[in-house]
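Request:
You are asked to prepare a plain-text protein record giving the amino acid sequence and the backbone structure tokens, at your earliest convenience.
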Amino acid sequence: DTTSRLPLPGVLGGWREDLQGRERPDSKNQDRDVNVITAYGQVQGFKVYLYDDPEARHRPWNLPVERVTKDVNVFLGIPYAMPPIKEGRFKPPRPHRGWQLLQAVDWGPACPQPSSYTGATKGIRDVDEDCLYLNIFTPYVGSGVAQPYPVMFYIHGGEFTHGASNLFPGHMMAAFYNVVVVSINYRLGALGFLSTGDENSPGNYGILDQAMALRWVYDNIRAFNGNPDAITLFGPGAGAASAGLLMLAPRTRDMVSKVIAQSGSVLADWAVIIDKYRAQNTSRVYAETLGCSIESSWKLVQCLKDFRSSFELGNSELRPHIGMFPWAPVLDTNYTVPSDNWYEDWRASDWHFFEETPEESIKNHKFKYNLAYMTGVTTQEAAYIIYNNATLARNQYIIDLELFDQKIWELVLQYNYTLNPQGVYEAIKYMYTYWPDPKNITHIRDQYINLLSDFHYVAPFDKITKLLVEKDVPTYLYVLNTSVEALNLPQWRRVPHNIELFWLIGAPFMDVEFFPQKWNLKRDMWTDNDRNMSRFFMQAYANFATYGNPTPSQILGLHFDVAKVGQLRYLNINTTFNSSILLNYRQTESAFWSMYLPTVIGRLVPTYPPVTEYWWEPKQPLQIAFWSVSTVCLLLIVLSVVCCMLWRNAKRQSDHYYSGDILMVRDDEPSEGMENMNRSSKENVYEYRDTPPIRSRIPRQNEVKLQERLAQNRKFSSTPSLRSNSNISLKDMRSEGFVTSSPNGQPRLNKAMSQTSLSKGKSKTHLVQGTPQTAV
């Protein structure tokens, strides 16, 4: 026995009422340890004993049953991926490397989210960026099971911004209806869905987490007596939309046999962001609120990744400029993803999730061949939106005609219906005015709830139903029209979004210690109708996971009919005594949002332009450095070429000025030329000869210097010996600027002197190396 050898944490080291329920006299005498072997290593869990029975025929009036009826094997906090921290932030999940012995005895921490949803009283005690954990509830482990149990894979809702797996304890459903229940955490908010519209942060990390968890379950659930070929995805709101995406995505659709979508559809406007610029706009606005630069997407991502804590990222709530929720999965066809050589642990294929819209995937039949689908809505879906509105709360949730008009305009502007805003406003107001008494504030509030419910939930519910029915997918519908009586909610929000949760987790049959204090549950508060509805929902969901039909036989006198083209049959759930099958739920309202309104506005959801248009997009630090150095080198090369060309042009002009005509010997003076040549060959001297005067622009100071030198030389020119020892040398002539070197190394007369003669005097002499010549 492990507990006798080691002081273990969590439930194995002592009694935890939030994990095991209320402690009873016989509780500690029961066996608790459970061990299984997975592909990743040994997992140690524990048993939980349940003290009530949904099937109990006799119970004391208004009291729970106080006897052990079932036990369930529980494994909490199993990591399904490497922690998405440090370098793993804003990147797809990586498979876990495994362990030797894992004590799965406590809930894993929830993913970072706004603090308004966390706290001990709200059921979320621990929050950490290392949050990729799943939980498993199975009726039995070990051999002896005739056939493996169907698997029910729960994805929590919460608008892709909040929620946790521990808010769905699957004890009752697993123990009494022979299914394996799995619940998971996935990254939320910016950490899960930040998308810059390019390879710097493609997004979809939260939905990729779900895909990784589903793969882990598919590969390992046999160790828990689960059937990997019978996996049913279910969840409310964002969980329902996520289930629809996993049903259609190339990497996961072959693992999904059935889907139960509670109050949510993958075809809802908030379920998937199709527009790249809408995702970019949200990310930049979000980064600005955290003080990060949005000059480029690379700078934006580096700031959020390296210089902001997970608490800052998770706790920064954002009101979107467009749409209902700020974050959602993004269609990844409009931008590139990092290539294989960008990161050591990630490949390009890791970033892709779905490359066509969900509607196109359904129309193209891109789902598992034997898929079955079940979905439902409540009659007051959007009541929670009004209830969570702080401004309306201060006004006691009263909505008059003026405020109703304002809310309609807010909706029009929020979705940027700029093509015909006045027409859209008038159409919506006409559709949702209570014409028998337009100014009645009670009816105005009810109509506003209907407006939001139809737009966000009912119309998408109707649309996906029709598409699946056309593809011959067995589809079952329900509309919930009754409330949890124990909660005693006010009439205007008696049947809000996700009210089924209390029934699905078997709350009327479990100890209140399993649930958050904020729910204010008591075991003696549940009514018979609550217990009946809980039994009905748990059994209907388990039947659907097992048989693909929620009611192969009646449950408490209720049954579902399959929907057909033109006959969308749904179970209208009032109570277990007066529910009935009806047809075509809110078809006029659904058609208004799906078909009529797009003709009024031209297109359904235009989007705002990005906050800042990038004038360049840096890809990676190494690439930035490479291109920077390359640009500098290119500029240097261009500059060198320009300098060479300028020098060459100057050289050509210089050659033109040094004209050879002034150094040529006249044909009519052969004897003097021969004399000069002979003298040059014998004495190697420089000789001056008189030349005809030529007008020149020679500088005045050079002219004076030359006259002085020539005058001094004439004193010695009559005597050869004195001429050879003249005090004017080649070096002197060079220092005065009269002589330069020719290309072959021989001295020649300065350009200015070679082209002109002195303006003063009747004749001037030019100096020629070796052979004195007279210029003409």
Observations:
- Residues 399 and 442 are 8 Å apart (CA to CA).
- The mean pLDDT is 83.
- The chain has 24 helices and 17 strands.
